[in-house]
């Protein structure tokens, strides 16, 4: 049954999500996803699917709503209008099962654990408004801005107007993702990503659990090997985070002295003085 699901969704995810994969991600990483749940979501009529978006409480739920929307309601203007009406809904849910989901602001707030890789999504899926905007962007291929955890009431009202104008066949100026030019890994090049990766280095019991589970399941190890060259080292998400941070400030080699404490101090001291150097593809101090 699981194999069937992977084949069924692998095509859909490429079509449905206009987001970015950092290192690796697949629908197999979504906790609780089954073919039965997928089939059930696909059968929902437009009105019930729009209602589902209001109540989704896990990343699995959100993913299924998005997939069903793209597969079945792309040309349904009534459905689009119902979703547009949700853009100003600021109801928030602490989503469950967020493994390998990356929303930088939610990593900063410790609502999501950064595992070093996964699917980067720019809308705040913890909010009804963010989920609605994500659906609309995927259904239309248009981007009039993102809903983040910091979006103001005016921001979402303006965004809703843009979507209403678009559905009324009016010309609306699009917004483009603000990745830094010449970035080695565009997905981590924003200051929000920089901050989130620094935060991810802090001690977290869930991070220890993930590391231990990876060592046991993949390498049949009880503890991290001493060999720094061992691929098992990448069971620890910090291995990715340190590499990303070194890249972001242009370090050519990993410096062991730059530990979690060092990076937190660096960020707190310099966060307002970081400037992107396009020629080098990294941040520098002003």
The biggest beta sheet reads: 3 strands, mixed
Structural class computed from helices and strand pairing: mainly alpha
* Number of DSSP helical runs: 12
Compressed to H and E, one letter per element, the order equals HEHHHHEHEHHHHHHEE
Task: State the end-to-end distance.
Answer: 55 Å
Question: Any overview of this molecule?
Answer:
There is one protein chain. The protein is mainly alpha-helical and 286 residues long. The chain has 2 domains: 2-167, no CATH class; 186-285, no CATH class. The protein is 48% helix and 6% strand. It has helices at 2-16, 35-42, 46-55, 59-72, 77-84, 104-108, 128-140, 153-167, 191-200, 205-219, 237-248, 260-270; strands at 20-22, 101-102, 118-120, 274-277, 282-285. Strands 1-3-2 form a 3-stranded mixed sheet. A two-stranded antiparallel sheet has the order 4-5. Helix 9 (191-200) packs antiparallel against helix 11 (237-248). The radius of gyration is 20 Å and the shape is globular.
Fold topology:
Layout: H1 2-16, E1 20-22, H2 35-42, H3 46-55, H4 59-72, H5 77-84, E2 101-102, H6 104-108, E3 118-120, H7 128-140, H8 153-167, H9 191-200, H10 205-219, H11 237-248, H12 260-270, E4 274-277, E5 282-285
Parallel strand pairs: 2-3
Antiparallel strand pairs: 1-3, 4-5
Can I get a quick summary?
This protein is mainly alpha-helical. It is 48% helix and 6% strand.
């Amino acid at each position: 049954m699981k194999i069937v699901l992977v084949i069924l969704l692998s095509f859909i995810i490429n079509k449905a999500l206009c987001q970015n994969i950092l290192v690796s991600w697949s629908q197999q990483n979504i906790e609780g996803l089954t073919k039965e749940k997928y089939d059930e979501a696909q059968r929902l009529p437009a009105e019930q699917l729009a209602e589902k978006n209001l109540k989704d409480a896990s990343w699995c739920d959100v993913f299924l709503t998005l997939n069903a929307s793209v597969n079945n309601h792309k040309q349904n203007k009534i459905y689009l209008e119902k979703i547009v009406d949700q853009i100003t809904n600021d109801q928030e849910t602490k989503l469950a099962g967020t493994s390998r989901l990356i929303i930088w602001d939610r990593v900063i707030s410790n609502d999501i654990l950064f595992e070093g890789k996964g699917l980067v999504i720019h809308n705040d899926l913890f909010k009804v408004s963010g989920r609605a905007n994500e659906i609309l962007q995927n259904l239309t291929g248009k981007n009039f801005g993102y809903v983040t955890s910091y979006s103001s009431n005016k921001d979402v009202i303006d965004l809703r107007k843009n979507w209403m104008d678009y559905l009324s066949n009016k010309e609306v100026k699009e917004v483009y993702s603000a990745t830094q030019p010449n970035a080695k890994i565009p997905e981590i090049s924003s200051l929000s990503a920089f901050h989130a990766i620094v935060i991810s280095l802090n001690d977290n019991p869930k991070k220890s659990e993930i590391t231990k589970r990876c060592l046991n399941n993949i390498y049949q190890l009880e503890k991290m090997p001493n060999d720094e060259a061992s691929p098992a080292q990448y069971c620890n998400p910090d291995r990715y985070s340190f590499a990303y941070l070194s890249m972001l400030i242009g370090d050519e080699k990993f410096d062991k002295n730059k530990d979690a404490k060092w990076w937190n101090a660096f960020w707190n001291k310099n966060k307002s003085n970081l400037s992107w150097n396009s020629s080098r593809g990294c941040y520098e101090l002003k």
